[in-house]
Amino acid sequence: MILLKNGFINLNNELVKQDILIENEIIKEIGNIEVKDNYEVIDCTSLYLMPSGIDVHVHLREPGFTHKETIKDGTKSAAKGGFTTILAMPNLNPFPDSVENIKIEEELIKQNALIEVIPYGCITVGEKDEKLADIIKLKNHTRYFTDDGRGVNNLELLREAMKLAKDNNLMIVSHAEDNFYKYAPAGEYVAVKREIEMLKDINCKYHFCHISTKESFEYIREAQKEGLNVTCEVAPHHLFLNETMINNNPNFKMNPPLRSEEDRLSTIKALLDNTALMLASDHAPHTKEEKSLEYDKTPNGIIGLETMIPLVYTNLIKNGIATLTDLTNWLVTNPAKVFGLEANEIKEKKYANIIALDINNLHTYTEDEILSKGKNSPFVGMSLYGFNKLTIYKGKVVYSE
Known about the structure:
Layout: E1 2-11, E2 14-23, E3 26-31, E4 40-43, E5 48-51, E6 53-58, H1 71-81, E7 83-88, H2 99-112, E8 116-119, H3 135-138, E9 144-145, H4 155-168, E10 171-174, H5 185-199, E11 205-208, H6 214-225, E12 230-234, H7 236-240, H8 261-272, E13 278-279, H9 308-317, H10 324-339, E14 354-358, E15 363-364, E16 383-384, E17 387-393, E18 396-400
Parallel strand pairs: 1-4, 6-7, 7-8, 9-10, 10-11, 11-12, 12-13
Antiparallel strand pairs: 1-2, 2-3, 5-14, 14-17, 15-16, 17-18
Helix pairs in contact: 5-6, 9-10
């Protein structure tokens, strides 16, 4: 049995000192618990104990790109960051666009993942926008479909995929990007607008990845008011960085790119008013060599699993803009609800999926501590509160500082 001693939990946005006793995979007791000889005691003095997170947008790069990341290293990084469920994006080799291909990924997950990893299926074969992937057969392996990394611009195929999603209780997850405008703000909001128009005919479950522009949020907000089944996520880099900070630094290059200060403030507003229900890292590792190229030649993407919680805690919770309950909603409750997963909770008889955040001490994030194979973070050198010290997944310690 594991006893988490002297930590604090959130009761109605008040920090309350409580011990947590874990037996096998389950939370057995919460309260003031006496230490016994057979307990493995973990001292959590001054740490904030909360349910572990769900990140619905992670690039694990395996199979196909293990020079950038592996399932083992990516899930280590997730556990360090405070996540015990992640959804793995399908821009892989082979692409999970058929049962045969997704089985390869599933086998690698089974062998190497430290936490729960749920694969996405592709919307189109090879993400080429030419032919629909075998969604009906794939639905026995995943309920979530995306061509993330690229926007689906073949609207007939997208319409077909939406109908299949509607009829089979699946979710389409859109990387909204119009090929004409590409990385410009209009590249996002033009695609968001037309996809919402299509949703008015086929109201399937529809989720937008990494939304970053004021106009996109306005369209999504309006669609939600009209009762469409549409949700979106935001990434920490769009919340806390803007385009003036890029300075041709490849570690500030991602897609969607960093936007204007007005867009950044709109992203925060969307999170605070529940237009965006969740945070997602868009963790996208690349090698040192790739991120050492000239800015125009370097690939899009930054890592984000290890810094998402401290960035949000420091910038929104610690200064009173949002609450501890908001943090749990954005990281746990809402992603679980939207994606139809079980939400982790600190309650007796629930799975012991728990993290311990140091909310009292500043820590400077260094490259040496990164557990991802990729080191491409714009947040290296930043001092933040709320780094995770301990992750327990189904009663087992999967990360401990």
